[in-house]
Task: structure prediction
Amino acid sequence: MTLAFVLTVPASEAELASDALWTLGVAAVEERTAPEHGDHAGLEDHFVELWTSLGTDVGAVARAAESFSSRWRWRTVEVDPTVVESWRSHAVPSWVDRELVIVPAWRSVDVPGSVVRVDIDPGAAFGLGDHPTTVLSLRLLKEVWWPGATVLDVGCGSGVLGIVAARFGSPYVEAIDISVAAIEATTANAERNDVAGVVTASTRPLADVTEPFDIVVANLLAPVVVDLATDLRRVVAPSGALIVSGVLSERHDHVVEALSPMRVVRTMTRESWAALLARH
Ligand SMILES: C[S@@+](CC[C@H](N)C(=O)[O-])C[C@H]1O[C@@H](n2cnc3c(N)ncnc32)[C@H](O)[C@@H]1O
Result:
């Protein structure tokens, strides 16, 4: 059996809660109508349940719950892993542009030889490559990448961003995450894409990274970016680039401020999300 994480929230906050789950690193979120009983009965706003798999990572459950609004209730439920994994049969390749595609590793897809194809199995981590924040991060990465650029992927999830950089030809990519499941997924995906010799994945905290990187990508939730801003700025080489995503397109002034004195020189948006490119 595996653990499902069930978050019950007012329907009006479902999108916000779903975004919060995505940015915590879940692979899929399913929305269901909450049963009309218990704590929520008689309240005006109706409630929905967001079901997601957190595998057996109980630490992830605790972390998830800490950052949530007190209006949101959560519980864990033991479920058959095959039910939780049903999203896999609906997964499709994500075309970042005409030259780069992220393919669910279990899908057999024909892709022209001229296209950079990266096969990803997120396992219990975030990052099939299709979330708007990931697509935006990949587009900015492609724009700023240059041969020889070293890359630090902060909050690597499945490793998709760092692995794409390695496939472009980066000589060294470091991928870090607080989740052990993310490190396992990144290591497996690096092997799957023949870049295991280039990508190093670990739970090393950003605060312990001392060497500068040419390109730093950080697809994290806005409050996490703000918390880590000083260290993010510190690890970007003087002529390097910092790509930040996981921030809302309508509300990220505080993130721009936190990154200062680095300057945001480009902003890309998709759906309600934004990715920012900052330079010293
Ligand atoms: C939105 S996912 C991004 C995954 C992947 N980079 C992508 O773009 O698809 C955010 C990841 O950041 C990780 N994370 C959250 N807080 C972190 C922190 N303080 N340091 C490092 N990683 C963190 C989460 O565990 C999760 O895997």
